[in-house]
Structure formats: C-alpha cells, structure tokens
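Internal tracking record. Fields below are filled automatically when a chain is submitted to the structure queue. Please do not edit lines marked as system-generated. If the sequence contains nonstandard residues, flag them in the REMARKS field before resubmitting.
Queue: standard
Priority: normal
Entity type: single polypeptide chain
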Amino acid sequence: MSKRLTEKFPINQPVEIWFERIDLWIPGVIVRHQHPAVWVKSIDGREWFVTNGQRIRILEQEPTTEA
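SYSTEM-GENERATED OUTPUT FOLLOWS
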C-alpha cells in the first residue's frame, strides 16, 4: 500500500507541484497537513491544496532566480 501524502511529505519539505493547464512544475514547500492531503506554498506566495500524489514530487534542486 502506498504512503499517504501526509506521510510522504513532511512539513517544510521542498516540493514541486504540477499545473497541467500551463504544463509546468512550480516549486514550493509543504506548509501544513490536512488529511488526506497537503498544503503547498508556491514560490509566488499562493497556497495550494494538493490531493493527487501524481501532481506533487520532492524538489530535487533548489529553484534559482534568473536575471
């Protein structure tokens, strides 16, 4: 049985969330758990309630800002 999102992603874990409409992974961080999902704060300050494990992944590398 696979782990629940609240077990797989601890608070303060850097992650990326998938936005299908714009075909892009957006970096963020887990800010809280709310069974059965997690809340992610994206780099633009918005918070997203993520329930689908296929739309979230651990951030492998810290995001960089380009000049």
